[in-house]
């Protein structure tokens, strides 16, 4: 059985520079190309899109592959908002027994689990004996090719 993924780095948000780029209002065709300039409607600033709460948002680099089926890969950057409430079904950054991890939170009236999105990894049942805290909620994934 593999060991859980962890968090490689945590970075604070620095919003000194705003760069608004053209946003195309049409979808990108995977078939016959069409001229795109007719479809530029407005500008998109990635800071505004990804960081609605700058003082409580951080970037976290993933180390490991336990969340690949959720589209989170080794080396990806997660946008994490600490002001959002962690509810069942959300992907969270948690501190479990002193270690940071990224998992899906599944909870009901009687149980709480952290679930990996890779069948090679087991779920972690959170009990009264588990040192567990939610650090933040993942809102976006930045994946580079």
User: Uncertain spans, ≥5 residues at pLDDT below 50?
Assistant: none
According to CATH, the homologous superfamily of the domain at 7-14 and 54-142 is Umud Fragment, subunit A
Rg over CA atoms, rounded to whole Å, is: 18 Å
Helix content: under 10%
According to DSSP, the number of beta strands is 10
Shape annotation: globular
Share of residues in strands: 35-45%
Number of helices: 1
Order of helices and strands: EEEHEEEEEEE
In short:
Helix content is 3%, strand content 43%. It has 145 residues and is mainly beta. It has a domain of 97 residues: Ribbon (Umud Fragment, subunit A), CATH 2.10.109.10.
Description:
The structure is a single chain. The protein has 145 residues and is mainly β. It has a domain at 7-14 and 54-142: Ribbon (Umud Fragment, subunit A), CATH 2.10.109.10. Helices cover 3% and strands 43% of the residues. It is built from one helix and ten strands. The protein has an eight-stranded antiparallel β-sheet with strand order 1-4-5-10-6-7-8-9, with no helix packed on it. The chain has a two-stranded antiparallel ribbon with strand order 2-3. The longest helix has 5 residues, at 46-50. It starts with 5 loop residues before the first strand and ends with a strand. The model has no long low-confidence stretch (mean pLDDT 86).
């Amino acid at each position: 059985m593999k060991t859980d993924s962890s968090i490689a780095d945590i970075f604070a948000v620095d919003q000194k520079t705003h760069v608004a780029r053209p946003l195309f209002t049409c979808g990108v065709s995977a078939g016959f190309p069409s001229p795109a300039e007719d479809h530029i409607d407005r500008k998109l600033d990635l800071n505004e899109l990804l960081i609605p709460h700058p003082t409580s948002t951080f970037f976290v680099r993933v180390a490991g592959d336990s969340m690949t089926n959720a589209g989170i890969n080794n080396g990806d950057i997660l946008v994490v908002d600490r002001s959002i409430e962690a509810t069942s079904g959300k992907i969270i950054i948690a501190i479990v027994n002193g270690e940071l991890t990224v998992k899906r939170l599944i909870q009901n009236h009687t149980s709480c689990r952290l679930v990996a999105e890779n069948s090679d990894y087991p779920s972690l049942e959170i009990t009264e004996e588990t040192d567990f805290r939610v650090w933040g909620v993942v809102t976006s994934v930045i994946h580079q090719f």
